[in-house]
Design brief:
Elements lengths: L1 H10 L3 H14 L6 H15 L3 H17 L3 H17 L3 H17 L3 H17 L3 H13 L8 H17 L3 H17 L5 H16 L3 H18 L5 H14 L3 H18 L5 H14 L3 H17 L3 H18 L1
Helix pairs in contact: 1-2, 1-3, 2-3, 3-4, 4-5, 5-6, 5-7, 6-7, 7-8, 7-9, 8-9, 9-10, 9-11, 10-11, 11-12, 11-13, 12-13, 13-14, 13-15, 14-15, 15-16, 15-17, 16-17
């Protein structure tokens, strides 16, 4: 009962209660009980949201040992997926892709569609960062429209749809992206999910609204994301949220407020070791510095973004950096 209550608390965004209940469940569950794998992985996710790497690693190691001891092959594939997610968070996309592909094959062989669906979500994220949005979208649609997509938990179905929204936006289909985000938010809210995944959906919707020139709606959506993250005590994603707010204010002509949010975003990325969107945040800061006639600062921020893009082996970030470089050169001419 402690494990189930802990999972429910995590989904509702009650992180402290979830951590207490799940930790209590670990103390009570027998050493070889199959539920221990899921409990360790739920705690790993909570520590990921809080940007706490050491306990996150401890629970991954414990989950892997437990899955091997039972043995639980589907559970082991799920552990491998969480290891892939960690690699992606640490800017190692190629290793993340290898682990996620292996987990997808193992989950399919074990008849575990929910694990295969989570593998597709992580693979789509990896392929997006590697500059392969069409391949990523194909992966997602195969799951959402196929047998694996039937009966998915709301949190997982929402995650798949959110990734598809990001891909549709990057491919230039902002209306399809906005439709996807609206569906994600509706799914999460119907299911009573109030965790960081809902914040990520609102933040993604906010950026799509910026692209669609709906600045007031974008600010409300991104503000909702920020409110949720603070309410549930999650730190991961705060950097992306503040960067999006910086863009809103920049487009609206409020350069001082845009710079304040951009500086806050960089602090979040640095302090929380949150590399998702880190290069983008530096590129936005470079543009803001240029707009403020600080060309030296703009070049420094651009160089840092280029370093992060190279470290992550991300073609998307590299192209974005090249475009920003061209923009800065044009402004400086």
């Amino acid at each position: 009962h402690y494990a189930r209550a802990g999972h429910n608390a995590a989904l509702a965004g009650a992180s402290a209660s979830a951590q207490f209940l799940l930790t209590r469940a670990l103390r009570l569950l027998p050493r070889d009980h199959g539920e221990r794998v899921a409990v360790h992985l739920a705690l790993e996710t909570l520590h990921r949201d809080a940007s706490e790497l050491p306990p996150r690693l401890r629970h991954l190691v414990a989950a892997r040992r437990c899955a091997r001891r039972i043995p639980d092959r589907a559970g082991l594939a799920l552990v491998q997926l969480r290891e892939a997610r960690l690699r992606l968070d640490r800017m190692e996309p190629e290793k993340a892709r290898e682990l996620a592909e292996n987990a997808f094959v193992a989950a399919t062989a074990q008849g575990a569609p929910h694990v295969a669906a989570e593998a597709a979500a992580i693979l789509a994220n990896v392929l997006r960062d590697l500059g392969l949005p069409l391949e990523a979208l194909t992966r997602l649609e195969q799951v959402l429209e196929g047998e694996a997509g039937r009966g998915l938990a709301p949190a997982l179905r929402g995650e798949l749809l959110r990734y598809s929204g990001v891909l549709w936006r990057r491919l230039g289909h902002k209306d399809r992206a906005l439709d996807a985000y609206s569906e994600v938010v509706a799914i999460y809210e119907r299911a009573g999910l109030r965790s960081s995944v809902l914040a990520e959906a609102w933040n993604a919707r906010g950026y799509a609204l910026i692209v669609d020139a709906q600045l007031a709606a974008a600010r409300r959506a991104i503000g909702e994301a920020r409110h949720i993250l603070r309410a549930v005590g999650a730190r991961r994603t705060l950097g992306k949220v503040d960067t999006n707010l910086a863009i809103v204010y920049f487009v609206a002509g409020d350069l001082a407020t845009a710079i304040a949010h951009s500086n806050q975003a960089l602090r979040h990325h640095e302090e929380d070791e949150d590399y998702d969107g880190f290069a983008d945040s530096y590129l936005i800061r470079a543009q803001l510095a240029c707009a403020a006639d600080d060309l030296t600062g703009a070049r420094a921020h651009l160089c840092r973004a280029e370093e992060l893009a190279a470290l992550a082996s991300s073609p998307y970030d590299a192209v974005h950096a090249a475009l920003t470089c061209g923009w800065l050169c044009q402004r400086a001419a």
